[in-house]
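BUG: 3D viewer hangs when loading the predicted structure for this chain

Environment: internal workstation, default settings.
Expected: structure renders.
Actual: progress bar stalls at 90%.

Input used:
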Amino acid sequence: MTTPTLPTPAEAWAQLQEGNARYAAGTSVHPRQDAARRAELAYEQHPFATVVGCGDSRASLDHIFDIGLGDVFEVRNAGHVMSESAIGSIEYGVGPLTTPVLVILAHERCGAVRAAIDAQAEGADPLPPHIAATIEPIARAVHQVAQTSGTDTLDADAVDAAEVGKAHLRASIDTLLRTSRITSDAVAAGTLAIVGAYYHLAEGTVETVLTIGLD
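Structure tokens produced before the viewer hung:
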């Protein structure tokens, strides 16, 4: 396999946006998924993007961005939480794989966000310990949104889940940049751009929430 020339950060993000536009319009082409592509990738990979998404079954990155085998280095967990394993995986995508764009993708009606909101309600049953630990960063976003809007954090029905999801998205990127020198150095060097995005389930569209280092 010949090592391809990677796109610029802006070109890489544009390629993902083009794929999402096809998916949302119902005109996906499902590129680079045949036997020849499998064989080509058997011993090496050169993805053009790293994408961090939720493990939600409705948020398949291959479908959302209409991409093929070897196109994207994927990192997924419940609520795209910046755990040690997630950050380490991101650093592999940014470092050895030198992907020029990193996308953190949140989505609407996220179960992890809903669990974090409901767990704040008065009298809520305690969550299993591993789930509680996983959604702790999202719970902080719940309090942030509630304080900003003046909503009582104990009234789970009054907290805007979409705003919580976007607040958690921004906090995830902030955490990554504070804790991962590999990532922050790549942004400072201009070799990496970060995009925070939000996926709308029914429409199939990806909304850009924030960008860092993208011209």
